[in-house]
Request: fold
Amino acid sequence: MSRRIPHWIDGEPADVPDRRVAPVYDPATGAPTGEVVLAEPGDVDRAVRSAAAAFPAWRDLSIARRQAVLFRFRELLEQRKGELAEIITSEHGKVLADALGEIARGQEVLEFALGFAEVLKGDYSVNASSGVDVYSFRQPIGVAAVISPFNFPAMVPLWFLPVALAAGNAVVLKPSEKDPSASLWMAQLLAEAGLPAGVFTVLNGDRVAVDALLEHPGIASVSFVGSTPIARHIYETAARHGKRVQALGGAKNHMLVLPDADLDLVADAAVNAGFGSAGERCMAISVIVAVEPVADDLLGKIAERMAGLRIGDGRRGCDMGPLITREHRDRVSGYIDTAAADGAAVVVDGRGVVVDGEPGGFWLGPTLLDRVPTTSAAYTDEIFGPVLSIVRVDSYEEGVSLINTGAFGNGTAIFTNDGGAARRFQYEIEVGMIGINVPIPVPVAYHSFGGWKASAFGDTKAYGRQGFHFFTREKAVTARWLDPSHGGINLGFPQNA
Ligand code: NAD
Reply:
């Protein structure tokens, strides 16, 4: 319990004695492995001032030099990502292969961001009026705050950092206090890559630090990823304080299975997308909407595959690890009780699972629920654990209507061999990211990530071109050089001639 996890300010670890701390656990053993220092408003102010002081020099560095730093970061990350995966597994619990998977998806964004010179090129119109040229270009916005959730301690920060930094901003990252070490490791690596001190800051903390960031006049933008109630609070508070905000929230992702689908493909996809990372993914599939008569067959195929899953310590080659904390495990387990009390059938029960791991770990096995009433909290709430629900419907239309009446709109998938149905689905469904025979449709880095409805607040998605738009603002210049002579006074609105 002795390890103390500091901030990263001014290019080095920064601790403040006598501050509040929060325990960090190894979820596979249940043992505390360290304590993370929690910033107070004064620490936030120090961090933001450091970032603000570093910003102008980074902004003014040539494109080639900024690219060189990020290229070195990319090389170092590629060489040493195994270390990062071990850190993720030790604090989050996901299995090592999955930790490497999230790093790979983060690397995609980094590699996309390396091409920023192309994305940020401006526009130029010659002779918009006689002798007048009009051009526009984008400039960084200043100090960007990023507030990230526990479930992707490397990938979610990497959705934003490379884009914000490439565009010339300074970044203050407030990672989840449950697994903060991945961020500090990346800060160290960025420093080794040559990033000037202060351009990237890790500020550890809880809601006190977040609220101080949202109100701080030195913060230009807030990028948040986390649960919906907090996302709403972030959006409203940061906007009220004049910040640019993108706040990605929770999810409840449905997979619509039509009767003509390949049920073996569906069962594989449902197990992978339902139980990967113990269901602690915002793009996890949590509800299968089975258009009858396929539900019984599909149920059998899914249950058969679940029987083969190895649950245990992510360092032991298992398929699925523990949940993030004891409290979260108990909350998820409580939803199984709720579903059963509301009339659902518990087909596979993860409570009391036998694991390849320490008994004190935060375990809950994969769980399959059938005939979940859509009025049950187990259906309407985001559970965020290894619980897959089946809801039976009689038609495509009933399935679409069910999905569209839900509060969330993050991801969804349709499984079918009918191209016409899939095409109709992609237009009719009110969800931001859609998979067609693909269960976790996380867009590649050169598109953008974000949901609809209660899954995202603000109008700009993460990464891709939208990411660059978020982290820059445009200037338009109207210039005349040819005729410096005085054209006389004219108070009319300028017209082109
Ligand atoms: P969370 O909302 O509890 O925490 C997210 C961040 O907000 C953390 O940094 C935390 O310290 C901070 N925070 C927590 N309570 C706060 C408060 N009252 N005021 C201000 N800040 C506060 O989320 P989590 O449990 O870490 O992550 C899981 C959630 O994130 C799930 O709901 C999941 O769906 C969502 N998520 C969404 C996406 C997406 O892209 N839409 C991606 C990943 C995770």
Remarks:
- The chain has two domains: 3-249+455-478, 253-436.
- The pocket of nicotinamide-adenine-dinucleotide is lined by residues 147-152, 156, 174, 176-177, 206-207, 210, 225-227, 230, 233, 248-251, 282, 382, 384, 410, 451, 455 (CB under 6 Å).
- The longest strand covers residues 132-140.
